[in-house]
Design a protein that fits this description.
This protein has about 140 residues and is an alpha+beta fold. It contains 2 helices and 7 strands, in the order ββαββββαβ. The longest helix is centred in the middle third of the chain and has 14 residues.
């Protein structure tokens, strides 16, 4: 599972997830990509599940890139615990995803294989995504319908 190497004394507040993504919104490495079109948060288990389905569908050919990293801790208090006594322990690591963010990229496989692999991967994610191609990269990608 993905998580930061150094995690001592890392508890952060929840915060808000508003606006559009202005960084990580262009295809940098691959030919096809999975782009978020709605806001959400992704945890390390979901990233791993999507990665496994992509590589399995591509039959381990080509190359894939993961463009997100879960570095925000989510805490949870144990069940049947009374109020107070501080913040709970870290349960999982997440990343806030804004619309326009590139989540995965794929290269080195035919277009139909890449599209089917990315389609299977987007079903594993908790927010809406669409598949884009690098040849159409002259558009402004942070704008989402």
């Amino acid at each position: 599972m993905l998580m930061p190497k150094r995690t001592k004394f890392r508890k952060v507040m929840k915060g808000r997830n508003r606006g559009k993504s202005f960084r990580g919104n262009k295809i940098e490495f691959g030919e096809f990509a999975l782009k978020a079109i709605s806001a959400g948060r992704i945890n390390s288990r979901q990233i791993e599940a999507a990665r496994i389905t992509m590589t399995r569908e591509m039959k381990r050919q080509g190359k894939s890139w993961i463009r997100v990293f879960p570095d925000k801790p989510l805490t949870r208090k144990p069940l049947e615990t009374r109020m107070g006594k501080g913040k709970g322990s870290v349960e999982e690591w997440v990343m806030n995803i804004k619309p326009g963010r590139i989540v995965f990229e794929v290269a080195g496989v035919p277009e139909d294989v890449a599209r089917s692999a990315l389609t299977l991967a987007l079903h594993k994610l908790p927010f809406q995504c669409k598949i884009i191609a690098a040849k159409d990269s002259n558009e402004i990608y942070w704008y989402c319908n």
